[in-house]
Design a protein that fits this description.
Elements: E1 3-6, E2 14-18, E3 24-28, E4 30-34, E5 38-43, E6 46-51, E7 58-63, E8 70-77, E9 87-93, E10 99-104, H1 114-117, E11 121-126, H2 131-137, E12 143-144, E13 157-164, E14 167-172, E15 180-183, E16 193-198, E17 204-212
Antiparallel strand pairs: 1-2, 1-17, 2-3, 4-7, 5-6, 6-17, 7-16, 8-13, 8-17, 9-10, 9-16, 10-11, 11-12, 13-14, 14-15
Length: about 210
């Protein structure tokens, strides 16, 4: 097993690579931002990657880091503003157009409307299988409500995404029950880029990326 950890995130922060023999190698890592200004800010003695609000989807690829299969863990914080908080992780990226993503709509986390409630977590494979295409052709198959249900839209939440055996599973705040479990639409992933992602008109905060292979 290999674990790649970035936390807290900052330009020039060291990435430690741990193997089962406890050997550690360190290297510098940086992020490559696309379509959004990204800042690094201090909050409660840790560094947070903060995306500015803007039009269109945006991603900050972690330079030099690759992901094919395994477990992705991180923390995220959105906001309770309708249609202005979409944030998550992009992986299997070829470029800033072609990638898979798991993302969240925090403004739907505690929605009482049953339709909004099941649209809190989303999987997509850009650009051919974006959320609207999936909603039109495979309604509600690649979206779900959150588990556990009591997460505040404006609070930090912990995410674990497993990508194994053709399946993508999403777990929140240490729950052993996945809030979403779907078959990947990318049967033969060519890209290995990984990075944080926000959607149209969204900002977002991220910290503590950890990859386990």
């Amino acid at each position: 097993m290999k674990t790649y950890a970035i936390g807290p995130l900052m330009i020039g922060l060291l990435v430690s690579i741990f193997t089962s023999s406890s050997f550690a190698q360190q290297m510098d890592t940086r992020f490559i931002q696309y379509n959004r200004n990204v800042q690094l800010v201090k909050e409660n003695n840790r560094t947070v990657m903060r995306f500015a609000e803007g039009k269109g989807a945006a991603v900050a690829w972690i330079d030099g880091l690759e992901f094919s299969a395994g477990t992705i863990e991180f923390e995220a914080r959105g906001r309770d503003v309708l249609q202005k908080s979409f944030l998550g992780i992009a992986f299997h990226g070829i470029d800033s157009v072609t990638y898979e993503t798991v993302y969240f709509r925090p403004f739907n986390f505690q929605a009482t409307d049953p339709v909004r409630k099941i649209h809190a977590v989303q999987y997509s494979f850009e650009p051919d299988f974006g959320f609207q295409e999936l909603r039109n052709t495979q309604k509600d198959k690649f979206e779900s409500a959150i588990v556990p249900a009591g997460i505040s839209p404006s609070d930090w939440f912990k995410v674990k995404v497993t990508v194994k055996g053709g399946m993508v599973r999403v777990f929140l705040n240490g729950s052993e029950t996945p809030c979403m479990e779907v078959a990947t639409l990318n049967s033969s992933p060519l890209g290995k880029k990984i990075g944080f992602w926000v959607g149209n008109l969204s900002n977002g905060d991220f910290a503590g990326l950890k990859l386990t292979k």
